[in-house]
Amino acid sequence: MKPSVPARRAGWHRLLSMRVLVPLLLLAYACFFGLYTLGREMAHREQQVEEHVREDVTQRMTHLQGTLEYLLRTGQLEAVREELADLGSSPHLTVGLLLDDQRNVLAATRLALLGHPVWEAWPELIHPAALTRMKTARVRMSGDVRVSEDGSRVEGYYPIQLTPQPLGSQVGILYLQHDLTQLKAAQRYRAERSALRSSLLLMLIAGLLGLFFHFALGRRVRRLELAAHRLAGGELSARAGLRGVDELGTLGRAFDEMAERLSQDREALRRSEASFRTLIERTPDAVFVHRDRMLLFTNPAAVTLLGYTREEELRGRAVEELLLPGEQDPLAESSLPGSAREVRFRHREGQQVLGEVVTFSIPFDGQPAEVSIARDVTERKQVQEKLRTTDRMVSLGTLAAGVAHELNNPISYVLSNLRFAVDELGEAGEAGKPLSDEQSQEIQQALREALEGGERMRNIVHDLRSFSRREDEHFGPVDIHAVLDSCASLARTTIRHRAQLVKEYGEVPRVLANESRLGQLFLNLLVNAGQAIPEGDAKANSVRVTTERADERWVVVSVRDTGVGIPPENLQRLFKPFFTTKPVGVGTGLGLSICHGIVTAMGGRIEVSSEVGKGTTFRVFMPVADKGEQAGGKVKSA
Question: In this protein, which residues make up the domain named PAS (predicted)?
């Protein structure tokens, strides 16, 4: 569908268009410039008028000062009056007065003012400012020509010596007032015409630029604007197609390059989305997308994992419906990087499905959501369980000969003592005689020894049953010394021909573990320690079991042997499945791998250090149980 062309701007919005706005700005600038030029030109011209008139008045009064003083010294008062009367012909001279020392008018540009006192002839000269200026001129005997404060006239005060010096010091004042209003009005008129010419010229330039913007640039800008609207409407093939080496042409080419890049990115994004959808739909791992604990999306693997047939059957369901009781949190909380958590899912038919789940946050449909990726590990857990059981049976098989010997000894003297008791009782019965005290004591002794032998056999069978039965998943406080004692009893027959078994127990609390798994772990370590020591010199070698508390959180159990040691190149691969340093047929390579898995599953860790020819030390760190802590036995050796 072709995107609609944007509607034309109406009303004052058209003023925001470049082809209208730029000419308007130029016109506004022309008006502003004209007004600014007019004001500046008028001020400049008025200042020139004031300076010119002030200089002219100064020159005229300086000339008159000398002329009038000469005429007065020679007694030519009429000539003085004629000199001032001639000044009246000047159209801009308002008045000219010669005052005597009593401020009476001796001569004037107006004959009607002769002989009158100054306050009648020209009242302005009795103002305090005028009186001060006349007094200053008499005292300093120098002229003073200034522009009035309102700028309308120029006033000059010059002292005139009325009589020769020998006759006294009578000083008069020559006063001239020159009008500036007409001169300034003429200059303002000229300034207005000059500013008007400049403004008209600028307006003409603004009009020409407006036409240029409208026809040369406006259309190109309009093309660029339409192309941008089409691109924003989803038409990625839209191009401005502008040419030229100016900025607008460069902008048009940049826009076309951007549109081309967007088109390429849009296509790449479409292909990426298709690939991503294919990857999600075909991945064997189940993918759940949920927000506020409600399912938004599931892939086919998730549908199959839970026993459904269509994705729509799961969409909109609460997360709690997919999980067994107690398994809500793993899907709601984000996982740590690289870590997965086991979750028990509820199959549609009711059975349990075990999965390893990683949860993280991503935006989905423009809003935050959680993604949980689950891998079905039900079969793998079953295989691991079988491997653990197999390894346990292998360990017990390794101990079978020693266990048979351990059982054979008590069986022999149990049977021997029972036969002795039967024979003694039989002989006494045949003879019809009661047993003597000595015979009774011998029979009781034989029965007690038989009972001890039976207890010994029962303990051996109990230890065997403890490590051969299928373990449960229960974790709780475990007495680690009791577990070590049971393992030592089973492994003693394997170790005693190779080394001495030494137990050094410290005071440690109970650990949080599974007793059966813990027994399998230490039985493997003890058997491996014994097999690492060659037969022949049991007194010179030892397998030492040590317990101690590392800190408030950990109990460490060390199993150290004085065997052949492990080469450094093998230490890194020691806990990998099917890796073994034993001869073919002697080991499966699963023992230490299973040990590592057992320790990790119970929240602990295992470390190993070895030196070729000097022996190996395995250190198992187990977490302290929060409840039911009890100290183990005191340090002892065996």
Answer: 272-333
